[in-house]
Amino acid sequence: MLQAIVQASLRHRIIVAILVTVFVIFAALRLPTAQYGVFPEFVPPTVTIQTQAPGLDPQQVEALVTDRLELALGGLPGLAKTQSQSQAGVSVVNVVFHGGTDIYRDRELVTGAVASVGGGLPSGVTPVITPLQSSTGTVMFLGIKSNRLSLMKLTALVQSTIRPALLAVPGVAQVVAFGSTPEQLMIEAKPDRLIAAQLGLNSVAGGARYASTALGAGWINTGNQQLILEPHGQTVSTTDLAASVIAYKNSIPVTLGDIARIRRGPPPRFGAALVNGKPGIDLVIGTLYGANTLTVTNGLHEALAHLAPTLRDQGVKVVYALQVSSFIHSALHQVALDLAIGAVLIVVVLFLSLGNWRVALISFLSIPVSLLAATEILRGLGITLNVMALAGLAIALGAVVDDAVVDVENIFRRLRENRSRKNPEPALAVILHASVEVRSSIIYATLSVAIIFIPILLLGGVAGRLFAPLGIAYIAAILSSLAVALTLTPALAALLLARVGVSEKEPAPIRVARGFYGRVLGQVNRRFRLFMIVVVLLFFGMAATVPLLGVSYLPQFNARQVLMHYQTAPGTSIDTMLAIGKQVAAKLAREKSVEAAVVHIGRANLSNGHPGTNKAEIEMSFSRNVSNVAAASKHLLTVVRGVPGTRFWIDTFLAERIHEGLSGFTAPLIVTVYGPHMKGLGQDAERIAKILRGIKGSGAVTLEAPPNTPTIAIRARRAAMRQYGVTAHALLQTIAAAYTGETVGQVYRGVRIVPIVLTLPAQWRHDPNSLTNLPIATTNGSIVPLGEVATISETASPQLILHDDGRRVQVISVAIAAGHTGGYLTAAKHALTGFHFQQGDYVTFGGTAVSGSTARMRLLGYGGIALIAILCLLGIALGRGRAVTLLALGLPFALIGGIAAYWMTGIGTVSLGVMVGFVTLFGIALRNGLLLMMHYGRLVHDHGQPWNAETVRQGAMDRLPAILLTATVTALGLLPLALSAGSTGDEIEGPMAIVILGGLISATILTLLLLPSLAARFVRFDTDVEE
Hints:
Keywords: Membrane, Transmembrane, Transmembrane helix
Largest sheet: 9 strands, antiparallel
Strand content: 15-25%
Protein name: Efflux RND transporter permease subunit
Radius of gyration: 36 Å
Pfam family, one: ACR_tran
Number of strands: 31
GO molecular function: xenobiotic transmembrane transporter activity
Structural class: alpha+beta
CATH class of the domain at 508-553 and 850-1027: Mainly Alpha
Transmembrane segments: 12-31, 331-352, 383-406, 442-466, 472-497, 530-554, 859-879, 886-904, 910-930, 960-979, 991-1011
């Protein structure tokens, strides 16, 4: 079959060349329109339900909303787990499904379950299922500020103009506005006047609701025509509202203006924002699941460009705090530059080594054609050209180059040998024989290497979804390279070499290499024992350092887009947080490395995170002259620290998204405490957090749900209520209206809806002592102070209640210093050994720190199975047990150079990406070794040579040019990646390239020196000898 494919390619060589040219043009033109991204969709299918429940405290939200939703969601097909947050006024339930399910069907299932709750939720509480978002979630952070508009007017502009324009961009899921201050028509009832008029807030609410009602009136049918009635009686201004009658006392009308101040104002704040230190609005723009990040970003820029004249006229400035596309552009530019430099180096080396521009051109053209074919395969599979896919293509360069060089070098050598014969064969016959001669061994080698990468596809979980594109890209590249070697390479050889004279002399570099290699191989054979002692000592010496290698889940990204956080004591007010934010923003403004900084505090409606008012996030981007983001981030922490009672920490946006996608929290280590009692959970969590802060390598150790937030407890006294005639509904409704506000109507202004809200004056709402005198209406129409019917006391209660699969938990997130990830987890587990938990409590560890360890063990386990499969394949290919054993025993020696390169370059930690580099080394060593052993077999079986030292030497000499060229070209192709290791976009490819470069040296020595020496002594390829 292989011969038939090659024969057809030779027979129709012009057609093959034309078809490949058309394909290359087609694929190259499609590259700019490909879907690029930062990472693949690594988060399991997740549907989020957000429910606003104004006025309810965290425990009420838990009992009345969250518990009911979780109960309805239990048992959904494909459900993996549920995670929820219940805090004052809002419930968030994340429904996580197993990978492989249809996320849109999952959303339908959740919609049905939520609908089944029906009227089981409190009146006016409606769950909202948020749009499905991509793994990175956010595509852009925008700061909106104005030196002319008030924050309320700026909010109106955002709601009516900016936000709708951004939501209209295809691929945008949602636009969340932090710090917005929407306008309300506020009815601020004055308690002294309520008491004088003997009116309760519930009575005022009813009257105000009637005063602001908007109703249709239908039509009048006269017989000849139908006349539509347009009643205009709804309140639209503060004057109309103040004149509205709400009650009669002694036949005298009481208007809203008599008992309240009517004004326009903002609602109570649960969040705020600063744009470069000034009050503003922080817009967080999320992308839909599967959307193209670059396309969405371009659409957003176009939408903002159209709005620019309108915004400019009103003194509005848009600040780009953070754009994910910047990292993608930087990464693509860096990888493209590295590959371009590598391509130039490859061309130069091929030409100098082979001494023939035609041969060099054929070898080189195979590389871009194979990589373009691989990108089309990825596109067909729906895989974006993300960081992981590009890494797979980069490390496949070695195998792609090997395919090209092995085939062309063999054709070139056979043509040269044919020319020296007395009766040379036709050139096409020589090309056919030379191509087929190495094809079976290349196929076995390709299949073996493909099997090596299968464990990456089987990792499962977040690691599997994250690294699968790397494995698929690698396999797609080597399979494409195999197809190119069977079709294009013979066709080009026939077109460019068949009718052109080939020099009988070898190129000078190859002649010099053969002479040097022959002498070295002779020395090794003469001093074989000494050579083996040195190799074994090197191997065990490097193996002894393996336990000292630092480990991590992913490398430290050098992305310029970073997130800084600061946190104070639970219950800290927004005003205090704003004051701290202004101090921090002023310090950051003095740093030339920071382009812009936008702070948001607390939460916003429908935001992804729902922290309390004591937590803030600062989105910023470093300037382009910052080359080391880790060092710059560390410097910023030293700049901003010093605020008493405030903790700061910082990480790149990409790292936080991976942490959050894995565990739901933005830290590498998550310690979860389970238990039946909230008080015991809080006590255990606080003690554990204290222990973790004392471990070396600890960064910020944060209790995600502080158990002791300052609270005012209002406990109704039933006896007093009966005495005065106060109902529980009137009591609770009055408290809610007074301090949260009760919406009694709406005014419609274009696309904006302005609520009419009944509440108390600010001086009452901000004074805890005013609670005692809050007027409560009785059933007999009189007024009684709240203090007469309820006990009011200051206490502490949870700010946030977390659930994991319906069980209450406390979560401790731990930021770990660079280089301490692996050791920190072990130290944390050891430190908690013997910890005395409250009855029924226990602890689990999660996050990327744990998942990385699990993924590494899984990779090693699947790698062992893959190795068994490879050994079986080698047995079929070689047919000799000793040869297979020799290859298997020699493979670990290829790692010597990789480990040495790790220590010499100080590339940091062994992330999963570096482990993939070691897997690649196995593939290179296996491929070279297998090709050499199969060539030995051909010399004995096909050419009838005896199995002796001369045959061993000749076989090694025959393979020398291909092995050296492959190693040199691969090294030069990866050298730019290695030199830029740690740069933006090369955080994964760079360390992998370094490991592979170091391993190429030891793998080449293994193939050229160790294997021939061992094969001569322990393996037999004689046709009449059975092993």
